Q: What sequence folds into this?
């Protein structure tokens, strides 16, 4: 069958009969059997598949504890098996994790794409995903052509959101909310360190460029989720000989025949994974999403959260941001305290609210040592470090010329009553009125925060 051969054992015969009883069509049967029929000899393949399914279910249940995902690197629930052209559960492949699948030298390239406007999309019911839910694709696009393009890249498995992430409108609509709690926040794991295939003009569409595309809410460069979908390397799909990828720069400065082409290529060249907190937030400031909370959810994986809040599509932005900060790596939280220049506008002054980080200028990322721990039970955070309980800060209550640090003084009296004056500087423009403050230092005492 399909250029393969195997002995019809009792185990295989039993499994085939089970598929017949369930009225599975050929593609689904092939997708289920392909990974196992030449690897388990005379063993009971049906029991093996049941064992894999049970272990996968247990792993996903353990990944969720209350409203937290305790394993941010939870593997995707499904993959698109391109050899059988069917969506299959990860456990069908024999891998217990995405890493295990890659270690086995299996080629896996996830797909990222621009979402075209709703009026330009059509829902299709396809055997590829067993007709479990309608698959939204651009009008004029074809899943079959995407399948062929991926096969031509030598890919065995891929992950495509519209096929592998349960969409709305399916036969088991109640499952979509349940699955999204875990699956949406962990999408970033699929793209981490991967070679990503990108459809910049829409899923399955040829790459094109026209006026307004780069400023459109549908632009790939402006979509909130694509912050975490850049991968390690990228392949631009839908490329054509006369497309913008083949335009030539007219000078050594990277300028092209039109401003639009110049802008396109500069944006494409700048696509890379961000690693610093404020760089990631600055990228998200420019992004849009159909569901506002997606801008927060799309930050969880890039910000290296130890745990990730579950996804609630109706959650408020501020509640989602608070949950994310509480789940952040303690080192990243230290950057929030010591590097963000202003006081928070919420109940906790040491950290900014969502509106602040999305609308105000952000500092440049730099090294900052320290850890801000968080107690999930009490909701409180704490930090252990050098502290000066009382000292006078002066000279930082006026702005300086843009781009220049402001200089001031810190006056403190030691235990012997001797007054010491230190030169201090601020690399931001937030005014600090002359007053007596408590000062807290980061681990190497290079960064200090004032409060009272």
A:
């Amino acid at each position: 069958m399909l250029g393969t051969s195997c002995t019809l054992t009792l185990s295989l015969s039993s499994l085939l009969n089970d598929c017949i009883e369930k009225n599975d069509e050929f593609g689904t049967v092939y997708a289920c059997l392909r990974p196992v029929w030449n690897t388990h000899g005379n063993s009971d393949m049906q029991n093996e598949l049941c064992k894999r399914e049970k272990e996968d279910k247990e792993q996903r249940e353990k990944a969720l504890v209350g409203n937290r995902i305790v394993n941010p690197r939870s593997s995707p629930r499904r993959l698109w098996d391109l050899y059988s052209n069917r969506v299959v559960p990860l456990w069908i492949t024999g891998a217990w994790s995405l890493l295990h699948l890659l270690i086995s030298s299996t080629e896996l390239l996830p797909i990222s794409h621009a979402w075209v406007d709703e009026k330009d999309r059509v829902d299709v019911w396809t055997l590829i995903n067993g007709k479990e839910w309608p698959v939204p694709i651009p009008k004029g696009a074809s899943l079959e052509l995407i399948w062929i393009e991926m096969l031509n890249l030598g890919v065995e498995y891929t992950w495509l959101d519209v096929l592998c992430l349960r969409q709305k409108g399916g036969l088991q609509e109640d499952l979509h909310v349940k699955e999204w709690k875990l699956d949406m926040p962990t999408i970033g794991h699929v793209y981490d360190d991967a070679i990503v295939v990108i459809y910049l003009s829409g899923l399955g569409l040829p790459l094109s460029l026209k006026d307004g595309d780069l400023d459109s809410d549908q632009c790939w460069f402006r979509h909130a989720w694509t912050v975490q979908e850049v991968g390690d390397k990228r392949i631009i799909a839908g490329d054509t000989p006369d497309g913008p990828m083949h335009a030539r720069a007219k000078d050594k400065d990277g300028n092209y025949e039109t401003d639009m082409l110049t802008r396109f290529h500069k944006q494409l060249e700048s696509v890379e994974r961000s690693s610093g907190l404020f760089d990631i937030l600055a990228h998200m400031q420019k992004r849009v999403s159909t569901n506002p909370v997606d801008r927060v959810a799309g930050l969880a994986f890039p910000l290296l959260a130890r745990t990730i809040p579950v996804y609630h599509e109706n959650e408020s932005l501020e509640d989602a941001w608070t949950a994310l900060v509480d789940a952040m790596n303690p080192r990243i939280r230290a950057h929030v305290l010591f590097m963000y220049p202003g006081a928070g506008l919420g109940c906790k002054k040491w950290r900014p609210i969502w509106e602040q980080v999305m609308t105000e200028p952000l500092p440049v990322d730099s090294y900052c040592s320290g850890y801000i721990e968080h107690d999930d039970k009490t909701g409180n955070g704490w930090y252990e470090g050098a502290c000066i309980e009382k000292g006078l800060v002066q000279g930082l209550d006026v702005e300086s010329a843009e781009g220049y640090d402001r200089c001031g003084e810190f006056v403190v009296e030691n235990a012997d009553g001797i007054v010491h004056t230190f030169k201090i500087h601020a690399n931001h423009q937030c005014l600090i009125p002359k007053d007596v403050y408590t000062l807290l230092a980061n681990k190497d005492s290079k960064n200090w925060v004032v409060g009272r």
In short: The longest strand covers residues 387-394. The chain has three domains: 10-273, 275-384, 386-451.
